[in-house]
Amino acid sequence: MDQVISNGAGVNGRTRRELRSRLRWMHPDARRVVVVRTLRGFADGFVSILLAHHLVTLGFTPLQVGVIVTGTLVGSAALTLLVGLTGVRVGFRTLLLAASALMAATGLGFFAVTALVPLLVIAVVGTLNPSAGDVSVFLPTEQAFLAGHATGTARTRLYAFYNVGGNLAGALGALVSGAITGRVGFLLYVAVAAVAALVYRGLPRHEPRPSTHTKPLERSRTVVVQLAALFSLDAAGGGLVIQSLLVVWLHLKFDFSTTSTATLFFCAGSLAAFSQFLAPRLSRRVGLVRTMVYTHLPANCFLVLAALAPHAGIAIGFLLLRSVLSQMDVPARQALVMAAVPSEERAAAASVTNVPRSLASAATPALAGWLLANGNLAAPLVLAGAAKATYDLLLLWRFRSITVDHGTTS
Question: I need a surface site. Which of 27, 120, 167, 295 has the fewest CB within 10 A?
């Protein structure tokens, strides 16, 4: 027995050493951000399911639920912009601790309050975000902080870990949300906020500040606005094929069951998440912009082919092929934005490029629903593929020669 225990400890010890070796390239402070992003992903996935059930249980009508959900989206977007554009002089540690405190207060508010108007106020000023994306007060600060702890390919790799951790934890949070019902579930949200604050207390207290008083995006306004416009076009196309609408499309066209659909999207989500780890290797060879375009453009072609597929098996094959490629551009996109602007403007750039994307993605699902309701089953997927392919080609045309880290070009 002692030998078995010894061998087990040895295996565990080797596993821990191997894991530490793999993560040694990541700065300890950056590791804190990745850990918190993963925890927040779990909390966001959990509360995105809990929120609607909780509001319905309180007796709110679908319209009232929609108003509160809209309030969370609009409030998150506004607060993200505010922090990104004005928070550069406050310091990363202070901003992240304040965001953690606001997250805890939001959870406590939804736990304690049941009246419509106070809940709407909490939704607008709080941190709840029921959408799939991570548009939150944490986002510009975290992305700007990470950008200062890696360069070149290592930065893309760091963003890949940042995204994959949050995405997979979000899926897990949604999966376990059924185990805890009622408003008590918001206490878990509060607990995650408390852990986030404890982790962020370990960040350095004294950070370098910009040496001059500059306006947000004073030096990089043109490039950031152009990127934001292109990213919004991509997101508007993505809004036509968000997951819930693809579920409807599969049901209408192929009479897919709930179980089959859930299995498909679990596989697709896993492929999309883990494929992001390939982005750093590809960007080392061809650059950030070409990594984005060379993976994203074929993914959009697969989306169009899925729309035109005559059989369910063929359509599923194209959708899975799309999943392998569709998210590889995400860490490259984040690294591109951070590399294209001065360090003191990174938080503002993260806000200005991410918030319009979120709003644009919310603008087109109604159009897709109308098309599906009128029997135009292929139209949403074809339009989405065309819009997103147009974004790819415009991005390559406009930014193919942009200079990033250490003088390398994309």
Answer: 27
Locate 397 and state its tokens. 């045309």
The three state secondary structure string of 264-309 is HHHHHHHHHHHHHHHHHHHHHHHCHHHHHHHHHHHHHHHHHHHHHC
How many CB atoms are located within 10 Å of the residue 11 CB? 10
pTM for this entry: 0.78
Q: Which of 233, 249, 245 is nearest to 388 (CA)?
A: 233
pLDDT tens sequence across 166-194 = 888 887 887 777 677 678 889 999 999 99
Residue carrying the six token digits 């139209």: 379
**Cα 295 to Cα 335: distance, rounded to the nearest angstrom:** 16
E strands, 112-266, where?
none
> SS3 string of the chain?
CHHHHHHHHHHHHHHHHHHHHHHCCCCHHHHHHHHHHHHHHHHHHHHHHHHHHHHHHCCCCHHHHHHHHHHHHHHHHHHHHHHHHHHHHCCHHHHHHHHHHHHHHHHHHHHHCCCHHHHHHHHHHCCCCCCCCCCCCHHHHHHHHHHCCCCHHHHHHHHHHHHHHHHHHHHHHHHHHHHCCCCCHHHHHHHHHHHHHHHHCCCCCCCCCCCCCCCCCCCCHHHHHHHHHHHHHHHHHHHCCCHHHHHHHHHHHHCCCHHHHHHHHHHHHHHHHHHHHHHHHHHHHHCHHHHHHHHHHHHHHHHHHHHHCCCHHHHHHHHHHHHHHHCCHHHHHHHHHHHCCCHHHHHHHHHHHHHHHHHHHCCCHHHHHHHHHCCCCCHHHHHHHHHHHHHHHHHHHHHCCCECHHHCEC
Q: What is the pLDDT of residues 96-124, one digit of tens each?
A: 999 999 999 999 999 999 999 999 999 88
The amino acid present at 192, given as its one-letter code, is: V
